[in-house]
Specification:
This protein is of the alpha/beta class. The chain contains 10 helices and 12 strands. It folds into 2 domains: 106 residues, NAD(P)-binding Rossmann-like Domain (Rossmann fold, 3-Layer(aba) Sandwich); 180 residues, Rossmann fold (3-Layer(aba) Sandwich), CATH 3.40.50.720. The chain is elongated. 37% of the residues are buried. Bound molecules: NADP nicotinamide-adenine-dinucleotide phosphate and glyoxylic acid.
């Protein structure tokens, strides 16, 4: 039996050597050199073409190369009876929290506004710099990434809040949940961070109506998925001053097309889906553990509950 690796990213050679190192006994088939389809026992994948996984008759498990699994759930032929495992990698989590902390501090200290002033040769302090104790930072999604980001924001002294699907109790974080808790949550977010999974419930969640619930002049950091945000609504909110600035790592269409208005908008900072990266050296060992667990009939870490969609 063999493992199929599918990803069109440039890091394929790094993956081959990382997998060979931690799973020396496994035969690795790198797409498109799949070999006989009935040989494939596990698939390690990022954005496989729809139908590929359903074409593997002896598949026992599917491992996402990332934390998100929206790229798999979108396949109408996804073999939903098989274990689907998402990546929970402390090195990815640490990177995401660095990204969140860095950008919360950037927005807190008006760096996007100062970048615009610098471009205009304008010397104009925005005074007084606010205290963190007066700044409310809210995180949508209290999962692996959201909780770690909040824990790393806590030492700065921000007023923290979080929103999730089910109720949570996190010390020093005002927790809200469900559709009924969303308005109150948003109304108290000077800086909003989106770390939700993309599902039918969360697609388009940050639309004109929700953005209008934020305090005037709020900032948005989206490091989850582009489709959480209605881009035209976000641009309108920035243009009207409802939002002061935004930092976006993810977009509905990636790479972001050159003619997209976000590229040139003065209140938008863009990073190219690089907030939390999957590092082959750390992830390959976690995937080896997931494969071993499935073979032995144990529950792998990161097993997705398809009934809730994430
Ligand atoms: P996770 O552990 O599964 O956590 C998901 C959180 O979202 C949970 O708190 C969950 O609520 C909440 N949630 C889900 N559906 C909801 C809904 N309908 N309403 C309210 N809350 C909802 O996921 P994670 O590991 O933190 O990752 C989150 C996402 O980050 C991934 O799915 C991926 O899209 C994105 N990501 C981006 C990058 C990047 O580089 N930009 C890197 C990695 C991941 P409960 O706690 O109540 O279940
Ligand atoms: C990246 O976007 C991931 O889901 O890990």
């Amino acid at each position: 039996m063999a493992l199929l690796f599918y990803s069109l990213s440039d890091s394929q050679p790094d993956w081959t050597s990382a997998i060979a190192k931690v799973m020396p006994g496994e035969r690795l088939r790198i797409w498109p050199d799949v070999g006989p389809l009935d040989d494939i026992e596990f698939a390690i994948v990022w954005k496989p073409p729809p139908g590929l996984l359903a074409s593997l008759p002896n598949l026992k498990g599917i491992l996402s190369l990332g934390a998100g699994i929206d790229h798999l759930v979108s396949d109408p032929q996804l073999p939903r009876h098989l274990p689907l495992v998402r990546l929970i990698d402390p090195s990815l989590t640490a990177q995401m929290s660095e990204y969140v902390v860095m950008n919360v501090l950037r927005h807190h200290r008006f760096m996007p506004q100062y970048a615009r002033q610098q471009a205009a040769l304008l010397w104009q302090p925005i005074l007084p710099p606010p205290l963190t104790a007066e700044r409310r930072v809210g995180v949508m999604g209290l999962g692996v990434l959201g909780r770690d980001a909040l824990a790393k924001l806590a030492p700065f002294g921000f007023q923290l809040r979080g929103w999730s699907r089910t109720a949570h109790n996190i010390p020093s974080v005002a927790c809200f949940h469900g559709a009924s808790g969303l308005s109150d949550f948003l109304a108290g977010c000077d800086i909003l961070v989106c770390l939700l999974p993309l599902s039918t419930e969360t697609r388009g969640i940050l639309d004109a109506k929700r953005l209008a619930l934020l305090p005037e002049g709020a900032c948005l950091i989206n490091a989850a998925r582009g489709a959480h945000v209605i881009a035209t609504d976000l641009i309108a909110a920035l243009d009207s001053g409802q939002l002061a600035a935004t930092t976006l790592d993810v977009f509905d269409s990636e790479p972001l097309p050159a003619d997209h208005p976000m590229w040139r908008h003065p209140a938008v900072t863009i990073t190219p889906h690089a907030a939390g990266w999957t590092i082959p050296e750390t992830a390959a060992g976690l995937m080896a553990a997931s494969i071993a667990a499935i073979r032995e009939g144990r529950k792998p870490v990161g097993l997705v509950d398809l009934s809730v969609g994430y």
